């Protein structure tokens, strides 16, 4: 692994991996009723907010009630998407044997079918994190997010595409499973997408019917206001999810890798790739809950199947391990990380003027120069 080997000696990599394995095991051994109670309380809160939001929209003719309804519904959708759906579907609570918390049974309030998402996210993204041409979350097949991605005039629209993706993020996540970029390249046929599309249509129809037909009709003459309220809540959830996810994956200091660099990697090398390819977002307890604790993206990439509520508890130890081995631990406030992502989107919209590196490792050296 040419780029990663420069970081640590083989002996250090082995010890580094052992320390993280030990941290993981201690955390797993400590899981118990407190974790179960926590997720049940979050689910209870989410459901209460959704009921309150839906009810307040029945009084939508009164502006404060409409605003309160939209606010409650927005919070409910964010919690369902981030702290509940994303984390439950990662298998973080499979150890409880509770059917309601089963990663294979859970379905979230989102147009992206859970089964499709589990494959593209849990398997592909978390196995091949930040490996170019393997991790399809790098740019989502739409954006240029790394200098090693070959420039094309299409990428001049990078900032505009990102803005549209933020607004329609749940739809972007859904369509991501089509692998449309591979279809364009001739690597995949439309006929290969039949089952994926069937699931998309079924799930999207149900979501659209619920938010934009059923609930508006239930409010009678207030249907247009309810329609607008649901659309606003979905927009808030989309913008928030996009911001948290992009800030955890694409700030300027986050690195990408080639397939050659990561060939035959050990467990310690896999951990090392997660550290170098992730960034955290600082904030208070409520901020972390509303982000699904993906504000601790480093810890999540290291231990994706450990309950996310544990990430703040182990973050200090992870950071100390990184400092011990001279590794970066990328973190910063939301505004800083967002600004870094925005600058990157603009910069990579343009063709590079300096010689292109032959490997991603070389590109790191170029960026550090």
TrEMBL record:
InterPro entries: FA_desaturase_dom, Fatty_acid_desaturase
Keyword terms, alphabetized: Oxidoreductase
GO biological process: lipid metabolic process
A single GO molecular function term of this UniProt record: oxidoreductase activity, acting on paired donors, with oxidation of a pair of donors resulting in the reduction of molecular oxygen to two molecules of water
EC number(s) per entry: 1.14.19.-
Superkingdom classification of source: Bacteria
Coiled-coil residue spans: none
Residues of the Fatty acid desaturase domain: 64-331
Keyword match Oxidoreductase: yes
Cellular component, GO annotation: membrane
PANTHER family hit by this protein: ACYL-COA DELTA-9-DESATURASE, DESB, FATTY ACID DESATURASE 2
Record-given protein name: Acyl-CoA desaturase
Organism: Amycolatopsis mongoliensis
Lineage of origin: Bacteria, Bacillati, Actinomycetota, Actinomycetes, Pseudonocardiales
